[in-house]
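Recap from last week: sequence in, structure out.
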Amino acid sequence: MKTYRLNPAANGSVDWPLLDRERKSVVTIGAFDGLHRGHQAVLERVLETAHKFDLFSVVIMFEPRPGFAHAYAKQHDGADVPADVHDADMLMSVDRRLELLDEMGIDVAIVVHYTMAFAQQTYLSFLGNLVGKLGMRTLVLGKDAALGAERKGTIERINMVAEGTGTFELDVVDDCGPGTTRVPMKLEGLAADVLAGKSEPSDPRATMTKAEFRAWSKKRQAKLVREWSSTNIRFLLNSGCIAEANELLGRMHSVQGEVVHGEQRGRTLGFPTANVDDIEGYMPADGVYAGWLVDLGEAADTAEAADTAETAETESAEELRRWPAAISIGTKPTYSEETGLHERVLEAYAVTDDWLELYGHRVRVEFAQFLRPQVKFDSSEQLKAALQHNVEQTLAICTQNGTE
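Predicted structure tokens:
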């Protein structure tokens, strides 16, 4: 897959690449955060059309997410998002999205740095560049997509341009899934009720009556969203509802980061963990999970590969090392009073007989199932017993899923 990263000029204009003077393209546009099943429906149509008519399949993505960029600008006098400001609501890093697009078979990915100046470009100018530079023959969008300044480029208006000029076709995909639901405006504090028990949590909305759902929505100022949406997936992850979130994603939710030195208490307990820092992706609710630990290689090698991918075709990745893992997210309540450390951390214990030396490596942590909430144990022996049980659960779950 050919990847371009484009930075708009001060006036918001973009120097779009000229792909091919002879071969046309089918294009889709969006943030694609999470690449969930709604996004997949759009991308599958792109690939289907590209293969049918021998076109380039082109995906245009924005970094940072437009919603995050506009929210930041609103709070900072119209300023663009600085490079060192983290988007805590981002489900998946752009680099991970690019990896998945490559695996799907997309030909060209274009990542546009989303600035407030770029946001002022009209949808007509945008469409003109896609036709003139990218050779766009077909534009594929979801049902509620909108382009350009103030989102004036609605599906209806874009279709009028397509029919009026005859230079491209608009293909609208039903990416809404089974329907709509409601998600609270604020997610903080919601997990406590869902995670009160020791069994795997489930979507609290699923068992509500209509009256209960209305009362729940009103109390939490819940907004209407598509079930297949990044917003709904964030709500589920924040509630520890991994099974439901994975269903909407069409894969296991994952985060990536670098393995660093921690307190090394896991070694003394007999469960040496990989302490993951510099995390990219959305952290689920505090708790213990069954899942997988994937070694992506040394961090320096990963960065070098990312730089190379910007200007060259992506090469096939080597077989990655992957192990079942018991994953912990939280503040280590059994020891936090003793240590005075209350920072939220992610640790993954790879279930393997081999000694793993992963310091300085980038890893991916994949979440398969919630096991239990974080608990403050009375002793290290109690914690060890719980960890051993969690390891046994992890092996059973990973084997049952047929992914070991």
